[in-house]
Amino acid sequence: MDIEKVNSMDFGEFVDVFGNVIERCPLIAAAVWSQRPFSNLEDLEKHIFAFIDALPQSGQEGILRCHPDLAGRELQRGTLTAESQREQRSAGLTNLGADERLRLAELNAQYRARFGFPFVLAARLSDPAAVRRELARRLRCPPAQELRTALGEVKKIGHLRLADLLGAHSARL
Ligand SMILES: NC(=O)NC1=NC(=O)NC1=O
Questions:
Q1: Segment 72-84, tens digit of pLDDT
Q2: CB atoms inside a 10 Å sphere around CB 43
Q3: Tens digit of each residue's pLDDT (9 = 90 or more) over 11-30
């Protein structure tokens, strides 16, 4: 899909296509649509990220809370979005042993209790051991710093999903 096609989309089509670039936050695509035309993938991505950066902290935390836990209940129940299912599978999280899954659930619960939002990490770039290591490490970070880190991961996930949608596998992360 080229950027001319993107710029020609009406509101409904644009939100249909880009509504899950940021997990379960179609409002972001809806808000960004009115800023078209976009010069290229990077420009579209820049507008999506600028919307996130401009939100108050409560809004940013709301975006994080739209993310399903890694190897959590939604994965077990099969209620993940298609993108999230693919990402979690590619990270090797769909066939963990019971003990590994329990360990992650405990760490996720500790993380959520401390920060008030779920642990978010671009799973596609990761694997079970790295997820556990990062979760244990970030659990000890100061809240303000952790919010920034988590939003950075949301952007990495968004970048990868956009690149898939527009077929431009840009190397930059
Ligand atoms: N809590 C999360 O990090 N969730 C996710 N990361 C991904 O890359 N996909 C997800 O669903």
A1: 999 999 999 999 9
A2: 14
A3: 999 999 999 999 999 999 99
Which residue among 75, 81, 87 has the greatest number of ligand 1 atoms within 8 angstroms of its CB, and so is best to mutate?
Answer: 87
The alpha carbon of residue 73 and the mean position of all alpha carbons in its chain are separated, in whole angstroms, by 17
Ligand 1 atom 3, closest CA = 120
CB of 68 shorter than 6 A to ligand 1: yes
Atom number in ligand 1 closest to CA 156? 8
Tokens of 97: 């042993």
Q: Using an 8 Å Cβ cutoff, are 75 and 94 in contact? A: yes
Q: What is the dihedral of CA 62, 159, 39, 52, to 10 degrees?
A: 20
Q: State the pTM of this model.
A: 0.95
| Positive or negative torsion for Cα 3, 51, 173, 62 | negative
Question: Residues with Cβ < 8 Å from 33, sequence gap 6 or more?
Answer: 9, 11, 14, 15
